[in-house]
Amino acid sequence: MIIFTRELKRNRKSFIIWTASLVLFNILMMSFYQSIAENTEMYDKMVMEFPRAMIEAFGLDKISMSTILGFFGTECYIFITLFGSIYAMLLGASTLSREEGEKTIEFLLAKPVTRSTIVTEKAANAFSLITLFNLIFSIVNFLMFDAVKIDDYSTRALLLLSLGPLLLHLTFTSIGLLISVFVVKAKAVYPVSIGFVLFMYFISIMSSISEKLTNLKYLTPFKYVDAPDIIMNERIEPVYLAIMFAVIAISLAATYVLYNRKNIQGV
Predict the structure, then answer these.
(1) Which three-class secondary structure string do you get for 212-230?
(2) How far apart are CA 221 and CA 204, in angstroms?
(3) Among 126, 147, 218, 233, which lies 20 to 30 A Cα-Cα from 255?
(4) Over the stretch 15-27, which tens digit does the pLDDT of each residue have?
(5) How far is Cα 133 from Cα 19, in angstroms, rounded to an integer?
(6) What is the DSSP letter of 202?
(7) Where are the alpha helices (DSSP H) in the chain?
């Protein structure tokens, strides 16, 4: 577990920054809920003046900001899913590439460890950090819900709104791990990772506002854990769960195979 512990220390600072930033932002946004709930009619009228495409893109035609779940789904959920996914993708994409980029791979492989062991411990570290990231966010979120709620809400829906981002982030982490086999320069990790996540989010938006493009929802993980659908149906569709687990499994398997076959310069 030497590699696992080493990775925890290397990723500690970025983990604290990302977690603290998103948690504090969520606390700030949730603190506005009561004032918005007291002026429901005004906000409903304001929402109706938005372009139809914008209303459909953010699910404002399905949920209302007058409820605490609806408010969270429209105002806060996008940040934990989008920015959390960027963090997950960056974490995964830098996991293996960092060693080559920092020229420390030769030292690591000189030790009595196999490449499979390197992948296992580094992947375990990335998944552990993402799980802890979501756990902290979820605990704080539950506390905020109880602090600012006006009416009762569905605990099941809130649990699913906590599970959804976790699965989403693990999916992007696994894809990032696979990408880290090919992208070895630190300067390339950021544009590739951020660009991929934003492209997936763009596809999600397009599938929401255009009936002709609705089938694109199967290509983007963001639609698998869409807040309005989770709040309305109180479940994550089995087909979406299956796709996410399949992507995670395939990405991990491909990472093991390709990294073991990779010709690492200098080794």
Answers:
(1) HHHHHHHHCHHHHCCHHHH
(2) 8
(3) 218
(4) 999 999 999 999 9
(5) 6
(6) H
(7) 2-30, 33-37, 40-48, 52-57, 68-71, 77-95, 97-101, 105-109, 115-148, 155-179, 186-209, 221-224, 227-233, 238-261
CA distances from 172 to 146, 154, 223 (A): 30, 28, 13
Q: Tokens in use for 183?
A: 């992208």
Q: Is the dihedral of CA 214, 50, 227, 232 positive or negative?
A: negative
Structure tokens at 125: 């570290």
Tell me which residue has tokens 């981002």: 165
Question: Taking phi first (over 0 means left), then psi (-120 to 50 degrees means alpha), and beta for anything else, what does residue 51 get?
Answer: beta
* 106, two tokens: 């030769």
- CA 138 from chain centre, in angstroms, equals 13
- Over residues 158-193, the pLDDT tens digits come to 999 999 999 999 999 999 999 998 887 778 889 999
